[in-house]
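User: Hi! I'm working on a homework problem where we have to compare a predicted structure to a textbook description. Could you give me the structure for the chain below?
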Amino acid sequence: MICGCSTNRETSPEKKEKVLKQTASFTRLSLSDFSNPKVALCMEDISNSLVGGSKLYVFSFAELRVMTQNFARINLLGEGGFGPVYKGFVDDKLKPGLKAQPVAVKSLDLEGLQGHKEWMAEIIFLGQLQHPHLVKLIGYCYEEEQRVLIYEYMPRGSLENQLFRRYTATLPWSTRMKIAIGAARGLAFLHETEKPVIYRDFKTSNILLDSDYTAKLSDFGLAKDGPEGEETHVITRVMGTQGYAAPEYVMTGHLTTMSDVYSFGVVLLELLTGKRSMDDARPYREQSLVEWARPMLKDPNKLDRVMDPRLEGQYSRSGAHKAALLAYKCLSHHPKPRPTMTNVVALLDSLQGFQDEDAFASGTFVYIVPNENAAVRPVSDDGKGSGSGADEEGEGKRSGDGRRRRNPRQHGNRGLRHRIKLPLSHLVTYSDPALYDTFSNGGDSPVSTPTSFRKPKEQL
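Assistant: Happy to help. Predicted structure tokens:
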């Protein structure tokens, strides 16, 4: 644990010298550089040590009260294992160089299951790692018992909310692929840095979305530095969220970048199916999404059974098939066959060329622009409308007893009629939910047991 500034404790000169050398050489500092319990480092030391051109602002707790209207309930965005998250606003006069903007204020719950170490991990990683697909850490508050982090505000909330909550509109195929690519780029960046970072808790609630659905990774409390030198893995206590962790990590505690690849495969499968990774409300054999869906991902004839029915067929079948094959590879039971995140990004980028036209090419439905002066009629396979000619042929002639005789031609065409179905893109409008209640963790925090998982949130 890292202690705060104190007048009765001394900072190790050797520790400071190491930090300064790393800073001068622009080598990213790792969490282990600050994890010596015998060394007391001031937060000022840590803030000044962070490299990569980062600029973290230090906020007083009084300033946070003003920013959040005294942490008003109306500004509460959500609450997870780390603690509550509030929406706030930074005035342009509050900090020199900091522009006026909405922010997300995440406060550590001192009685929660996450603690100072996870709080420090956020500062160490996000204070130095900057990328378009990582959420931006603006600053922090370290005052007496207060541990608070201030992030950029993500107006569309988490992918979990957008994908699973009933009050939101269905995400179209193109948006789902955009989110997948953005999240993949964020993971690839972490894996390809000079000191690789293993994210360890990749899931829908930790993927935040800005106003145009650009995905950014958040919550680095469980992130770990990757293996160094000739080491192939990191041995650590198994932590994470049930349904997302790689099987070899669960069984052995061996953590590699391929563990993140498996978790990405789970999220990609959730994007394809619209189903949660774990759901006790589903039939027994379908409760684990991976176990149920993975055997069908390689078979194009079974693709319809896997795809989210809310898409109503409005997706590129060829693109969906390639995405399903990618998910299959990421979800391999063994780490070696899994692709690297760099390869994942390359494949997903290639899918952007697949348009949605082939969703319309099968001829399974016809869309007719409504005309207020004319009734919408069923359409037959030959492309001719049926119904308007009823007065001429369809109605036929009346018999002597006043009953109509059916026209055999009309009777024969009855089975050829199609039901008119409006494309989903014409029915859906985007919503911008005011709340996103899974900013921080999306579940309960890990407990201090040899193997601990956070259960996914229950489906509303």
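For your comparison, note the following. Residues 108 and 115 are 7 Å apart (CA to CA). The first strand starts at residue 57 and ends at 58. Good luck with the assignment!
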